[in-house]
Amino acid sequence: MAPTTMNNPTNLIEFVMLEGNGVKGLSEMGLKSLPNQYIQPLEERMSMIKVVSQESIPIIDMSNWNDPKVGDAICDAAEKWGFFQVINHGIPIQVLENVKDATYRFYELPSKEKVKYTKENSSSKHVRYGSSFTPEAEKALEWKDYLSLFYVSEDEAMATWPYACRDEALEYMKMSETLIKQLLNVLMKRLNVSQIDEKRESLLMGSKRINLNYYPICPNQELTVAIGRHSDVSTLTVLLQDETGGLYVRAEDHHSWIHVPPVSGALVINIGDALQIISNGRYKSIEHRVTTNESNTRVSVPIFVNPSPSDVIGPLPEVLANGEKQIYKNVLYSDYVKHFFRKAHDGKMTIEYVKID
Ligand SMILES: COc1cc(/C=C/C(=O)SCCNC(=O)CCNC(=O)[C@H](O)C(C)(C)COP(=O)(O)OP(=O)(O)OC[C@H]2O[C@@H](n3cnc4c(N)ncnc43)[C@H](O)[C@@H]2OP(=O)(O)O)ccc1O
Ligand SMILES: O=C(O)CCC(=O)C(=O)O
Ligand SMILES: [Fe+2]
C-alpha cells in the first residue's frame, strides 16, 4: 500500500488495527512524515525544555533486601518518587534477555498470525494484541503496539498465549514472584501490616498481567508520543526496559519530567493507583510517559501486579488506625480497571474516580 493512503483515517485503522500490521507495519513502509492521526496536541508533546537532568530516581541494591536500610530506601522511594530501579534483584539476566528476544519474535510474525490475537479475533479474552491504548476514545493515536497477557494459570497460559513468546513470558513472570513478595512485604511493614495473609495477598497480588510493548522507529519524534501521560492502575509494576531509553516520570514540581535511564540488568519498579488507594495516599502512583525514537525500535515488558478483579480496594484499617482521614472510597477493582480502559490516557485523572471530596 502507498504511504500516502495512510492519511485516510479508514485506510489507516484498517491497516494498523483490523489487518494487524500495527504501527510496526506503518513504520516499515518508510513513511517520510507522521500520519495526521498520530499528531498530538501541542500540550501533549514532549519538549526537552521540560526535562530536568539534575534529578534521578533512586537505584536500590536488593542483595540484602532484609536489611532495614534497604527496606527504608524502598519505602522512602515509594513515598517520594513512586518510581525506583532495582539491581541484584535475583532474576537471572538471561531470563530478561530471553523475554526481550521473545518480544521481537512475536512482533516479527506475519500480520496474518498476529491478527489472530486482536480484540475482534482472539479466542481468549486473556490474550490481546493491539495498537495505541484506547483508539476509540483517543484524540490522537499513540505510536505503540502491545500484546497483553492476563495470567490465570500455567495450564491456561500454555494453551492460549502465543507460542512465539509464551515460555519466556511465563518464565519471567515466575522468576519475578520472589522479588514482588519482597517488595510488598517491605512496603506493608511501613503501613503497620506485619503479615500478608491470604486475603491481603489477593488484595496486593491477586492477579497479574504481562504486556509486551513494541515502539517502532518513528518518522517525527517531536509530534507524537509512544505512551501518553498516565499512571498505572496496578498495585505495583515491574518493568523491563531495553537500552534505548524514553521513559519519563513526573518530577515533584508537577511540571517537569525526569528521564529513567536504562541501567544494564536493572528493573524499574513503580507504584500503581491500587497501592496509592490502599495506603491512603502514602505511596505515590506517579504519572509517566514514553517518547518515540527516530533511530531505534524500543521494547519494554511490564508485569502489572494487581488486586484480584473481584476484590474491593480501599485504604487499609491499619493505615487509618491513627485517626488519619480516609481520602479514597472503597471500589470494586474490576470497576476501577474498566474506568481506566474506557478513556484515553489522562495523566493522574483515573484516581479522581474514587477520591472523597
Ligand atoms: C494497553 O496499553 C496500556 C496498558 C496499561 C495498563 C496498565 C495497567 O495497570 S494494566 C492492569 C490492569 N488490571 C488487570 O489486569 C486486572 C485484571 N483485569 C481483568 O481481568 C479484566 O480486564 C476486568 C477488570 C475483570 C474486566 O473484565 P470484563 O468485565 O470481562 O471486561 P474486559 O472486556 O476484560 O475489559 C473491560 C474494558 O477494558 C478494556 N481492556 C481490558 N483489558 C485491556 C487491555 N489489556 N488493553 C486494553 N484494553 C483492555 C476492554 O476493552 C474493555 O473495554 P470495552 O470498551 O470493550 O468495554 C498502561 C498503559 C498502556 O498504554
Ligand atoms: O515502556 C515503558 O517504559 C513504560 C510502559 C508503561 O508505562 C506501561 O506499559 O504502562
Ligand atoms: Fe505505565
UniProtKB/TrEMBL annotation:
Residues 199-307 form the Fe2OG dioxygenase domain. The keyword Metal-binding applies. Gene3D superfamilies: B-lactam Antibiotic, Isopenicillin N Synthase, Chain. It comes from the Eukaryota. Pathway: Phenylpropanoid metabolism. Its cofactor is L-ascorbate. It catalyses: (E)-feruloyl-CoA + 2-oxoglutarate + O2 = (E)-6-hydroxyferuloyl-CoA + succinate + CO2; (E)-4-coumaroyl-CoA + 2-oxoglutarate + O2 = (E)-2,4-dihydroxycinnamoyl-CoA + succinate + CO2. Keywords: Dioxygenase, Iron, Metal-binding, Oxidoreductase. One of its GO terms (molecular function) is metal ion binding. GO terms for biological process: coumarin biosynthetic process. PROSITE patterns: FE2OG_OXY. PANTHER family: FERULOYL COA ORTHO-HYDROXYLASE 1-RELATED, OXIDOREDUCTASE, 2OG-FE II OXYGENASE FAMILY PROTEIN. Belongs to the iron/ascorbate-dependent oxidoreductase family. This is Putative oxoglutarate/iron-dependent dioxygenase, non-hem dioxygenase domain-containing protein. It comes from Lupinus albus. The lineage of its organism: Eukaryota, Viridiplantae, Streptophyta, Embryophyta, Tracheophyta.
